[in-house]
Design a protein that fits this description.
It contains 5 helices and 5 strands. By secondary structure, it is α+β, with helices and mostly antiparallel strands. It has a 5-stranded antiparallel beta sheet with strand order 4-1-3-2-5, sandwiched between helices. The chain is elongated and about 150 Å long. The chain starts with a helix and ends with a strand.
């Protein structure tokens, strides 16, 4: 027959076992809850990563499409106004009045930009006072229109020949990319190291212009054409 002490011991043991089982169960539930929460967090993170990746991919695609569109619509180099350097020789006996007329005709050819200056100067190649005026010629700088996508020095030269009726060998045209260098060249700031004889010629140009009351350069506003 069980005594009161035995009953108490059994009850205590049962309570301890119940408490231990409850503790295991709680830990299992916590573990399950934590695992589930971790999985949910991982799913959320992966979904966010995928979303970011998709967004970045979409943005990258838009950037590429925008770049391609910009590139295709941007004016290409040969479509921009081209800076022309013209050297035009005049036949022997050509007067200064006639030379000015020729310059004015050239600035009015269709492919010349009308909103930019047409600048020209007169030079000669004599290097002594007795040779002053030898090989009278003109240098001019101007721009040709960008819409002439196939414009070339040869085509500009043909227009010059057509309108001036001058000999084809008298016209020399090149395209320049640097307006400052060309302006400096036409102003007489040339390199004399390689060709020191040019210095004498440039000095005689000054004397020759003074004798004939010629300006250092002539600037015509094409918008007046």
């Amino acid at each position: 027959m069980m005594t009161a002490l035995d009953v108490q011991n059994l009850l205590s043991s049962a309570l301890e076992e119940h408490a231990e089982l409850s503790d295991y169960r709680q830990r299992d539930e916590d573990a399950f809850y934590n695992d589930t929460r971790a999985i949910c967090r991982l799913d959320a993170v992966m979904e966010q990563i995928e979303s970011i990746s998709r967004a970045r991919a979409d943005q990258r695609l838009k950037d590429i499409q925008s770049a391609l569109a910009t590139t295709s619509s941007a004016p290409k180099k040969h479509m921009l106004p081209r800076l022309v350097h013209l050297r035009q020789s005049f036949p022997a006996g050509t007067s200064f009045e006639r030379a000015h007329e020729i310059a004015n005709k050239i600035r009015k050819i269709g492919m010349v930009e009308k909103q930019r200056l047409f600048v020209y100067i007169f030079e000669q190649t004599g290097m002594t006072t007795d040779e002053l005026g030898k090989n009278f010629h003109m240098h001019a700088r101007f721009y040709v229109k960008g819409k002439n996508t196939d414009v070339s020095p040869g085509k500009v030269a043909k227009e010059v020949w057509r309108i001036t009726k001058l000999d084809k060998t008298s016209t020399h045209i090149v395209f320049h990319d640097n307006i400052h260098k060309l302006t400096s060249y036409m102003a007489g700031h040339k390199s004399f190291d390689e060709y020191p004889v040019k210095k004498v010629k440039c000095e005689m140009d000054v004397v020759w212009r003074q004798q004939h009351n010629l300006k250092r350069e002539y600037c015509l506003q094409n918008s007046q054409a």
